[in-house]
Predict the 3D structure of the following.
Amino acid sequence: MKHINIIDLNFQNVRESIGSFLIPTAKGPVLIESGPESTFPVLKEEIEKAGFGVSDIYAVLLTHIHFDHAGAAWKFAEAGARIYVHEAGLPHLANPEKLWNSAAQIYGEDMERLWGKMQPIAKEQLFAANDGDVIDFGDVQFTVIYTPGHAVHHNAYQLNDCIFTGDVAGCKIENGPVVPPCPPPDINIELWKQSIQKLKQADPSCLYLTHFARHDEPQQLLADLEKELDSWSGFIKPFYDAQVPTEEIIPKFMKFTSDSFKLKGLSEDEIKVYEYANPSWMSVNGLLRYWKLKEQGRI
């Protein structure tokens, strides 16, 4: 098994919120996840500590195109790297304007502070990674597992008996609970559960979560995540049915998640890390949209 460097991107000066993974291969070092462009200086420094330079990175495998996972991919493309992502994400990396403008409606003036910048990637450097594909780097091969539910363009990548899961296996910081990131617009609980089953059936010995690091009890983590998906979506459903305004739901949901963390023994500082990794307020709109589409028969 190749050595896997777990890189803490120190997002917003908070440890263990967003990670990237550096793996040496015969063709050159490969990154799983680029993180946002705002954390690129940290990633660059950590790559150099590992004995490489940014221009040495042969390829970047992105689980999906959300900024916390893919925002800095263009920096590596500029330096010559190949960028792999599910085919549904390719157009957004070639022309990120729509993606950026959509997010700007949510984050407003905080966009650049949180995420940095995002530039187009040349099409010849973008490569589709679709379900069942094997991406071969000589002595290292990754198998692509298409895992929608969190996003329609979401992949996981299997290396031997470990899987890099992006967001499909949720967020779990150290020994804290696993929770599902549910931002709009693609949340589909049924598809997500199908993706969880695909991960279970692969029977990995470990999972590498972007939020955060390695976890060695995959079956338990995935079973817990299914329960949390039901818990979170179930909490939102009565508010959707009653047509409660979103701004009234958000503080109630944030209290619901905070109380749950406290019941599981987390400190205020530990809850803060979870909030940076997976802002609970964002899941309100994602889950409201899920229930709306489900009611309309569109999912």
Remarks:
- The chain has eleven helices and twelve strands.
- The radius of gyration is 18 Å.
- The chain has two domains: 5-222, 224-295.
- Residues 5-222 form a domain with the Metallo-beta-lactamase; Chain A fold (CATH 3.60.15.10).
